[in-house]
Write a structure and sequence with these properties.
The complex is a heterodimer of chains A (about 400) and B (about 130).
Chain A lengths: L3 H25 L12 E3 L1 H10 L4 E4 L3 H4 L12 E2 L3 E2 L5 H9 L5 E5 L5 H11 L4 E5 L2 H7 L1 H11 E2 L5 E3 L1 H9 L3 E5 L3 H4 L13 E2 L3 E2 L17 E5 L6 H10 L3 E5 L2 H8 L8 E2 L3 E3 L1 H7 L5 E5 L3 H4 L12 E2 L3 E2 L7 H5 L5 E5 L5 H12 L5 E4 L2 H11 L9 E2 L4
Chain B lengths: L1 H18 L12 E6 L5 E3 L2 E8 L3 E10 L5 E5 L8 E8 L8 E11 L4 E11 L1
Parallel strand pairs in B: 2-8
Antiparallel strand pairs in B: 1-3, 3-6, 4-5, 4-7, 7-8
Classes of the chains: A alpha/beta (about 400), B mainly beta (about 130).
C-alpha cells in the first residue's frame, strides 16, 4: 500500500522538486555578486571600450562624486581620472539624478565608479525599477588603472585626468625599480617604515631595498636628496601620503609619479615570484597562487575565523561568505601549540574574510610556536571572490565552497 | 489538492526567506566605530595618539579630524583608504604645534559605508604643548 503523503511526494517530484531546487539555489546565492548577470549585466573594460569604439553614442554614466571626477577628492585614492564622454551623475544623490537615468530607461546604459561597488548597487536599483538593460563595468576606475599595461592604447584614447602626477601600476613600478632614470622614495612615516606601528597589519607590507626613506612630512627638509634629473617614484602602503608629496614636488619642478594604491596593490596583483623586490613581514600568497598550489598534498589551508563564520551561520550576515574548499577551521581562540604541532611539516596557508587584525594575531602566534613555513592569503576569501567577479578569473571558482544552509 | 496546497506553501516560504535579502541594497547597518584613544575629557601632552577600529559590510570613506574648539581650526586630518574593506584599524598620531597652552580640542571621526550609512563620533579632550 502506498500512503497518501508518499503519493503526493511522488507526484510532486517530477514537476515541483526541480522548481524548489531552483528557488533554493536562488535563495542561497545572496552575497555581494549574486545579482551579477541576473538582475543586471556586467562587462569588462576591454569589452566596454570595444562597444564604445563601435557605437560612439553609447550611453554611459560616471556615478562618482564631482570631486572624484575632478581628481580633487580629499580621499586621494579616489582621484583616478575619468572616461571622456560619460554622463555625470552622483551615486549618493539618487533622487536628484533619477530623471537623468530615466531618460534612457529603454536603452542599454553602462555605469562605472571607482571599484564597481557603487555601480553594482545602482545597477541593481535601476533594474529593480524596470530599466531595460543596465550594465555595470567590472572593477571600476581602480581596476582600469591597475591594468594600465593591458589597456594603455585604448585608454589613451578615452581616458583623461587632472592629476599632475602619473600613477604607476604594480607592473610599471617594478620596471621603475630597475631603471637608472628613476629614484625610488618611500614616504611612509617612521612607524610604518620601521614596522613599529601599534597595529600589526600596518607593519606587514615590508620594505624595498633600494628605496630612500624620506617621511612625507619631512620631505621639505630633504630636497637635497632628490635628483631633479630623474623621475621621482613615491610610494607608501595605500597611497595615503604619496599623492600629496607628488603634487608638491611637481610644483617645485620635479618629475614625480606615485605607486597606485601603494604596496598593498603590489601584494594584491603581483605573485610572490614577481615581487621578490619586496620583503614582507609574513609570506603572502595570491588567490591565483593558491589555485596553482591547491592540489599539493603537503598543503594545509587553515580558516582562522570563528566556527559560525566558517560555517556561514554567523549572526552578522555579511560575515557569511562561504569558505575555501578543503580548509580546516582552527579559530584564533582555539589556537594552541598542541593543536597545530601536527602540521609542522606542512605548508600552511592561513586565511580569513579580508585580512582582519585576527589574522595577524594568528600569524604572530604561529611565529611564537616556531612556525616559519606559513603564508597568508592576500585579501582573504573576499579577494578570491572579487577576482572571480571583476577580473574574469572564473578558474578561481573551484576554490570556493559557498554558504551552507 | 494537497499537492497544490503544499506547493503554494513552499513557494510562500521561499518568497518569505528570499525577502531576507543579504544583498547590498538592504544594508541598513551603520559602520561600527570604536575609538580606543584618546579618551573623553583627558589631557594629552605632546604626541596625540588616535587609535580605534571600524567594521562594516563594505566601508567607503573614513575621515579623522582634530579641531580647536576656540575657532574650529584644523590641527590634524587623515583620510585613510578604507574602500571596500570590512574592517579597518586606525593608528594615527600627531604633535600639535603653535599652541600657547592647554587647548580644548575635538576629535571627530566620520565613517561612511557603501549604502550611505554614516557613523559620526566625537571625543573632547585637551592638548598641552
Amino acid at each position: 500500500m502506498v500512503y497518501p503523503p508518499i503519493k503526493i511526494i511522488k507526484k510532486m517530484s517530477r514537476l515541483i522538486l526541480p522548481i524548489i531546487l531552483v528557488l533554493f539555489a536562488l535563495n542561497v546565492q545572496s552575497q555581494n555578486f549574486s545579482f551579477d548577470n541576473v538582475n543586471f549585466s556586467t562587462i569588462s573594460w576591454d569589452d566596454f571600450f570595444k562597444r564604445l569604439d563601435s557605437s560612439p553614442n553609447l550611453i554611459f554614466f560616471d556615478i562618482r562624486t564631482p570631486g572624484e571626477r575632478a581628481d580633487t577628492s580629499q580621499f586621494s585614492s579616489y582621484n583616478q581620472g575619468k572616461i571622456k564622454g560619460a554622463k555625470e551623475t552622483d551615486y549618493s544623490d539618487f533622487d536628484r539624478y533619477y530623471p537623468e537615468y530615466k531618460k534612457y530607461k529603454s536603452d542599454t546604459i553602462y555605469l562605472y565608479c571607482s571599484h564597481s561597488r557603487r555601480s553594482r548597487r545602482l545597477a541593481k536599483r535601476l533594474s529593480d525599477s524596470l530599466f531595460t538593460h543596465v550594465v555595470s563595468i567590472n572593477g571600476g576606475m581602480s581596476y582600469l588603472n591597475t591594468m594600465n599595461t593591458l589597456y594603455r592604447e585604448i585608454k589613451s584614447k578615452h581616458f583623461t585626468t587632472s592629476l599632475s602626477y602619473q600613477q604607476l601600476t604594480p607592473y610599471e613600478f617594478k620596471k621603475a625599480l630597475k631603471s637608472k632614470d628613476c629614484q625610488i622614495i618611500d614616504v611612509r612615516p617612521d612607524s610604518l617604515y620601521y614596522g613599529t606601528a601599534t597595529i600589526e597589519w600596518q607593519n606587514t607590507l615590508g620594505n624595498i631595498k633600494n628605496a630612500t626613506h624620506i617621511p612625507f612630512d619631512r620631505i621639505h627638509d630633504h630636497y637635497h636628496l632628490l635628483d631633479k634629473s630623474k623621475r621621482i617614484i613615491l610610494f607608501d602602503n595605500f597611497n595615503e601620503y604619496a599623492a600629496g608629496v607628488a603634487d608638491s614636488l611637481i610644483k617645485k619642478g620635479y618629475n614625480a609619479a606615485v605607486l597606485l594604491f601603494g604596496l598593498d596593490n603590489v601584494t594584491t596583483y603581483l605573485s610572490s615570484k614577481e615581487r621578490k623586490f619586496l620583503k614582507t613581514k609574513y609570506k603572502l600568497i595570491t588567490p591565483s597562487e593558491l589555485l596553482i598550489n591547491s592540489k599539493e598534498k603537503n598543503n594545509i589551508i587553515i580558516d582562522i575565523r570563528t566556527v559560525t563564520e566558517f560555517n556561514s551561520n554567523d549572526s552578522i550576515d555579511w560575515k557569511n561568505v562561504g569558505r575555501i574548499k578543503n580548509a580546516i577551521n582552527i579559530p584564533l581562540s582555539e589556537l594552541t601549540r598542541e593543536k597545530i604541532e601536527g602540521y609542522k611539516t606542512k605548508r600552511i596557508i592561513l586565511y580569513d574574510i579580508m585580512m582582519h587584525d585576527e589574522l595577524y594575531d594568528y600569524a604572530k602566534k604561529m611565529m611564537e610556536f616556531g612556525f616559519k613555513n606559513f603564508e597568508l592569503l592576500v585579501g582573504g576569501i573576499s579577494q578570491v571572490k572579487w577576482e572571480i567577479h571583476n577580473a574574469a578569473k572564473e578558474e578561481l571558482k573551484v576554490l570556493i565552497e559557498e554558504n551552507k544552509m | 489538492m494537497h499537492s497544490k496546497f503544499l506547493f503554494l506553501a513552499i513557494l510562500f516560504w521561499f518568497g518569505l526567506t528570499s525577502c531576507h535579502d543579504h544583498g547590498d541594497e538592504n544594508d541598513k547597518d551603520a559602520p561600527v566605530l570604536l575609538i580606543e584613544k584618546p579618551a573623553d575629557n583627558t589631557v594629552v601632552s605632546g604626541k596625540v595618539e588616535i587609535h580605534g577600529k571600524v567594521t562594516d559590510k563594505s566601508l567607503h570613506e573614513l575621515e579623522i579630524k582634530v579641531t580647536k574648539d576656540s575657532d574650529g581650526s584644523e590641527l590634524f586630518k587623515a583620510t585613510p583608504s578604507v574602500h571596500d574593506k570590512t574592517e579597518y584599524s586606525f593608528d594615527e598620531h600627531f604633535t600639535p604645534s603653535g599652541l600657547s597652552g592647554e587647548t580644548s580640542v575635538t576629535l571627530t571621526i566620520i565613517v561612511e559605508d557603501h549604502s550611505d550609512n554614516v557613523t559620526n563620533k566625537s571625543i573632547k579632550f585637551k592638548v598641552k604643548p
